[in-house]
């Protein structure tokens, strides 16, 4: 499918209102190409505009701009505004996506309703005072009942969308017959009014909650266990399909067969088959960091492997890649480095989805025989090779890529079946992935370390291996990394916190002096140190060296106690106490010789020095042997 081609701007008379154009109602909005022929989908005069270019995880209703959803008196104006928005975009910004066009209408609706309550029926009559009343109204609004945030004020991000739509109406109306004369709030902005500017605000923070480790562990382990047992389940499913084909439809023999295989009935069996799809999604989303629409674009045969030399000895490392598409940042076709578990889950989904893809093939043949230029043909072909598909009973059992809304329902159900109270949603996996990939550099990754092998190494390796990777994911991982570093430095700079190691002792001396007077405030001090210091964990200290050549990072861990690059904090005390006790046991061995004993004594003394230093902070429990 294709959107309306963009005309050269120099072909349009400057300042000419859109509504003055000839044959406006017949003007083409969108088209698609079927068998090399262009088919018109929507015209300007239609009550709904079908826009193309949406991700395949959007439902049928999400592919239309529905002007029936706004007050009748505003439809002509909003058509003109959206038409101009589609053709030229906004000043200084890129041309909008189909989603952005639809969203503008949705976000503008509350303001149009507000104007109706003020008996204002034209943008030409809108004043800054009317706009200020809208700001007050939105700030007083509360989230509707039925939501987890029912009764709470609207989030700053929601306010930003509402106020941003008003600014867009003012700008875009200048090219229509109904011009909003004045800026809605001269001297300020939608983001400022929404509370999205100033110290301490962030579009990133609070946007997506970080899934707790225990929740993620439970979800992933359950999902992976289902993926591992998938072949047995699908063997039964395929036998049922054979029985059904032989009988010309559903047959009681199906129930008899599943009960013979240990299932209570067909309902329980079908539930397990559907749950397998969710399990595969959880595995792929957890280990790739992909967004929901990017997984919706995944088709059969999406994975392939490459080999790259690694190390001085010339050994080769195998890397798995997953192909898909991304529309979030306009990247188009993209690839993700993934572990073997993702390849396994997608192979399961290829087999799982085979009967559903056969339904799409049959639909395409039926449509082609009835009308070879039916626009639904182009739509069906978009989903033909997708693996994360679903059947829609209320649309005649039509098979399409599973929608975001359907996924969130399935994920919540999966979490509940695992006994979890976490309100699971698809976007939680990307944030969790970024957190794990970032924390792997700090030694915090444990039970999934084997799945994240390449992520826990040098991420620049990915750029060298494959230029098609989704770059935005690296940015999100870097954001998580920055947040972790700030948390670590915040602990270092907390008054009274004892720190060992050469760098740690320097921080204490600097911190307890007049360091804060150099900075505007404590927050700036933390941010400055975090951004200027290389920080990673070797498990027994924070290493600030620019390379990994310190002997304490590998061979002689106790050497970090005297290293000028090391920071050893209270969280490391149990490790050094355990190491000290273990070394004490080694002294009892009668086969280590005098040299060995000297080495052990030296290591024990370094452990004791660390414990003595750390004991000067928290006095709650003795740590010095």
Sequence-ordered SSE layout with sheet pairings:
Elements (H helix, E strand, L loop, with lengths): L1 E2 L24 E7 L2 E7 L4 E3 L13 E3 L8 H14 L9 H20 L10 H13 L15 H18 L16 H4 L19 H16 L1 H18 L5 H8 L5 H23 L3 H5 L6 E7 L6 E11 L5 E7 L1 H31 L4 H9 L5 E4 L5 E4 L2 H14 L10 H12 L20 H6 L5 H22 L9 H10 L10 H11 L3 E2 L4 E2 L22 E2 L5 H15 L5 H23 L10
Antiparallel strand pairs: 1-2, 2-3, 4-5, 6-7, 7-8, 9-10, 11-12, 12-13
Helix pairs in contact: 1-2, 2-4, 3-4, 6-9, 7-8, 9-11, 9-13, 9-14, 11-12, 14-16, 16-18, 19-20
Overview in brief:
The protein has helices at 75-88, 98-117, 128-140, 156-173, 190-193, 213-228, 230-247, 253-260, 266-288, 292-296, 340-370, 375-383, 404-417, 428-439, 460-465, 471-492, 502-511, 522-532, 573-587, 593-615; strands at residues 2-3, 28-34, 37-43, 48-50, 64-66, 303-309, 316-326, 332-338, 389-392, 398-401, 536-537, 542-543, 566-567. The protein has three domains: 2-193, no CATH class; 213-353 and 387-465, hpI Integrase, Chain A (Orthogonal Bundle), CATH 1.10.443; 493-615, no CATH class. Helix 9 (266-288) packs across helix 13.
What do you see in this structure?
There is one protein chain. The chain is mainly alpha-helical. It has 3 domains: 2-193, no CATH class; 213-353 and 387-465, Orthogonal Bundle (hpI Integrase, Chain A); 493-615, no CATH class. 47% of the residues lie in helices and 10% in strands. The chain contains 20 helices and 13 strands. The protein has a 3-stranded antiparallel sheet with strand order 1-2-3, with helices on one face. The longest helix is centred in the middle third of the chain and has 31 residues, at 340-370. The model is unreliable at 1-17, 200-206 and 443-465 (pLDDT under 50).
């Amino acid at each position: 499918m294709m959107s309306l081609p963009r005309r050269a701007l120099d072909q349009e008379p400057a300042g000419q209102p859109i509504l003055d154009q000839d044959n406006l109602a017949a003007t083409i909005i969108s088209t698609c190409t079927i068998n090399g022929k262009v088919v018109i989908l929507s015209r300007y005069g239609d009550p709904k505009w079908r826009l193309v270019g949406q991700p395949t995880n959007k439902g049928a209703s999400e592919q239309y701009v529905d002007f029936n959803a706004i007050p009748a008196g505003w439809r002509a104006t909003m058509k003109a505004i959206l038409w101009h928005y589609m053709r030229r975009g906004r000043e200084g910004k890129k041309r909008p996506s189909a989603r952005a066009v639809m969203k503008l209408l949705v976000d503008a609706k509350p303001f149009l309703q507000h104007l109706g309550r003020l008996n204002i029926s034209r943008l030409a009559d809108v004043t800054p005072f009317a706009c200020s009343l809208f700001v007050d109204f939105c700030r007083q609004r509360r989230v509707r009942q039925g939501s987890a945030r029912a009764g709470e004020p609207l989030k700053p991000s929601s306010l930003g969308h509402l106020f941003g739509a008003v600014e867009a109406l003012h700008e875009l109306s200048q090219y229509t017959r109904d011009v909003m004369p004045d800026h809605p709030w001269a001297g300020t902005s939608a983001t400022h009014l929404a509370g999205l500017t100033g110290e301490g605000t962030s579009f990133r923070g609070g946007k997506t909650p970080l899934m707790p480790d225990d929740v993620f562990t439970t979800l992933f382990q359950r999902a992976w266990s289902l993926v591992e047992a998938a072949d047995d389940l699908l063997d039964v499913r395929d036998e049922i399909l054979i029985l059904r084909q032989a009988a010309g439809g559903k047959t009681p023999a199906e129930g008899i067969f599943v009960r013979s295989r240990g299932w209570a009935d067909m309902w329980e069996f079908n539930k397990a088959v559907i749950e397998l799809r969710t399990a595969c999604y959880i595995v792929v989303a957890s280990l790739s960091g992909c967004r929901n629409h990017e997984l919706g674009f995944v088709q059969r045969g999406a994975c392939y492997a490459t080999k790259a030399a690694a190390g001085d000895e010339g050994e080769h490392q195998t890397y798995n890649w997953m192909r898909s598409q991304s529309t979030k940042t306009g990247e188009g076709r993209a690839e993700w480095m993934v572990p073997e578990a993702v390849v396994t889950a997608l192979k399961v989904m290829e087999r799982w989805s085979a009967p559903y893809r056969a339904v799409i093939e049959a639909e395409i043949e039926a449509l082609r025989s009835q009308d070879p230029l039916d626009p639904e043909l182009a739509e069906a072909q978009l989903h033909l090779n997708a693996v994360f598909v679903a059947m829609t009973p209320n649309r005649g059992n039509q098979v399409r890529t599973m929608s975001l809304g359907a996924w969130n329902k399935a994920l919540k159900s999966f979490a509940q079946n695992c006994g979890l109270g976490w309100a699971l949603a698809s976007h939680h996996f990307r944030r969790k992935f970024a957190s794990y990939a970032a924390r792997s550099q700090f030694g915090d990754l444990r039970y999934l370390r084997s799945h994240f092998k390449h992520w826990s190494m040098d991420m620049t390796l990915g750029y060298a291996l494959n230029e098609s990777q989704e770059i935005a994911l690296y940015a999100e991982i870097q954001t998580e990394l920055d947040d972790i570093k700030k948390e670590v430095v915040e602990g270092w700079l907390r008054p009274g916190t004892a720190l060992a190691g050469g760098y740690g002792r320097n921080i204490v001396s600097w911190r307890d002096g007049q360091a804060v007077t150099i900075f505007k405030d404590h927050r700036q001090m933390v941010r400055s140190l975090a951004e200027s210091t290389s920080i990673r964990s070797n498990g027994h200290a924070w290493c600030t060296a620019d390379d990994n050549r310190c002997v304490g990072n590998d061979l002689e861990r106790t050497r970090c106690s005297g290293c000028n690059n090391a920071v050893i904090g209270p969280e490391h005390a149990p490790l050094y106490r355990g190491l000290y006790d273990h070394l004490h046991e080694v002294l009892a061995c009668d086969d280590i010789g005098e040299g060995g004993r000297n080495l052990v004594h030296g290591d024990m003394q370094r452990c004791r020095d660390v414990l003595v230093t750390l004991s000067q902070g928290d006095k709650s429990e003795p740590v010095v042997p």
